[in-house]
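From the pipeline queue, job 12 of 40. The input is one protein chain; the requested action is below.

Action: predict structure.
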Amino acid sequence: MTGIVVAPEAARVMRALRGASFSAYAVGGCVRDSLLGLAPSDWDVCTSARPERVVALFGESRCLLTGLRHGTVTVREGGALVEVTTFRAEGAYSDGRHPDRVDFIGDVYGDLARRDFTVNAMAYCDEEGLIDPFGGREDLRRRVLRAVGEARERFAEDALRILRLFRFGARLGFSLDAATREAALALCDTLRRVSAERIVGELSKLLPCPDAEQYLPEPLLRACLPQAAAGGGEAVAFRLRALRALPPELPVRLAALLGACEACDACGACDTGEAAREAALRAREALVQARWPGTLCDEVALLV
């Protein structure tokens, strides 16, 4: 693993906050990716400053009130956008997706405790170094994804975390902590609470990963793309083998999940035009119902 060099725009935002006597840290995915030697796509900052103090410090003209209710202000800095979020704790999740209440707090440790996985629950600043209360750096070294605290609680709070577990695993090539994976599989049905758009967004990132088939367990497919789980057992295994054999392109891999049939070698039914059209229509209908983009639905149907 490598050291952390904070992007200049994020470093300037953190210096300004610390110069005004607030705590400020780079946090989450940017810290994780930096330790892995990857280039973060963006830098998020967490701080003890309340949102109104952030706006007062940087000026209204430089601030976008993107998530004020949850404590987030996006600051324009040097041609970049830096999300600045107040340390917070969260109340119960009655809908299994969003906290009923957000409380601003003054402690970075409390803020990290609400996060999903240990590798995402680290913070950093040059003055204090790495803040890692849950062993995220060691989990990075071991290449394993593990929930912060009790896994079932984390997934019950926000069902999207289940899909994020498998997506992060596929993207990073990490193994999944046994207790975390067991809890995720047990609660896969709660993904039905998550909006179709969020599920599409996560699957769109997961499916093109090199070893995606290893991170698509049958319970996850049943919840997110039911036709891909039709037939269970051997049928699902066949579709996943087909997915693995194909290029890492989203339409092609969706076509494998929705169109591959383990009987193909034996029956040749799809050599007939009518059978092929029916298979394509079923695949398109499955994607339309799951709210995938229309052009992608058409492309996958054509491939099937």
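Job complete. The first helix runs from residue 8 to 19.
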